[in-house]
Design goal:
There is one protein chain. The protein is an alpha+beta fold. The chain has one domain. It is built from 3 helices and 10 strands. The protein has helices spanning 3-8, 48-72, 113-117; strands spanning 18-26, 34-42, 77-81, 87-88, 91-97, 100-108, 127-134, 139-152, 158-162, 168-176. Strands 1, 2, 3, 4, 5, 6, 7, 8, 9 and 10 form a 10-stranded antiparallel β-sheet that branches. A hairpin with a 2-residue loop joins strand 5 and strand 6 (100-108). The longest helix has 25 residues, at 48-72.
């Protein structure tokens, strides 16, 4: 078992699976203020070699290179919000910060037909991004940026730009006991 999985119960091998549940709250205003439950299934983390390819694709070919590289990745799991079809997870990284586990997850965003056919500015934000912080009991909170643009800093960390007024709040997150795949 990998070090990350052994110490922090975040899967690093394909045979492991983490299941997180919680609520998503959209407080950005307008007519779409709402809350929904979510379930996140994470089968494994992005290997360093695959992450390095994403960083290099961005450096070589910009946002389009990154988007193409993300499309080539095998999904790491999925997030399902409410009763909607799940969205595949493209990138999942874990770290320990201040004694807590931090998950950073990138997904390819499904764009609305109207966005694409009317060449809206939102099409320049092809990703969704989640950041979740969990304590040692598997409880936590986080944020979801539903319409995001991603770049990479010189050190390889993701630099995420939010298109919406506010990120969605992820709350009452709980890591469920492993039930297998």
């Amino acid at each position: 078992m990998g070090l990350t999985a052994a110490l922090w119960s975040i899967p690093s091998l394909a045979s492991e699976r983490a299941v997180l549940t919680g609520a998503v709250i959209n407080m950005s205003g307008g007519t779409r203020e709402a809350s929904e439950t979510f379930t996140l299934f994470l089968d494994h983390l992005t290997p360093d070699a695959a992450y390095d390819i994403l960083v290099q694709s961005y450096r070589d070919k910009g946002e389009e290179g990154l988007q193409n590289a993300v499309w080539d990745l095998k999904p790491l799991g999925q997030i399902q919000i409410g009763h909607h079809i799940g969205t595949p997870l493209a990138v999942a990284r874990a770290s320990v910060e201040g004694g807590k586990r931090v998950l950073r997850i990138l997904t390819d965003r499904a764009m609305e037909y109207y966005e694409v056919t009317h060449d809206l500015r939102t099409t320049e934000y092809p990703f969704s991004y989640l950041e979740i912080t969990l304590d040692d009991k598997g409880l936590g909170a986080g944020n979801l940026i539903p319409v995001a643009k991603v770049a990479f800093k010189k050190n390889g960390d993701m630099d995420v730009t939010n298109y919406t007024a506010l990120p969605f709040t992820l709350t009452h997150i709980k890591q469920e006991p492993e039930k297998g795949n």
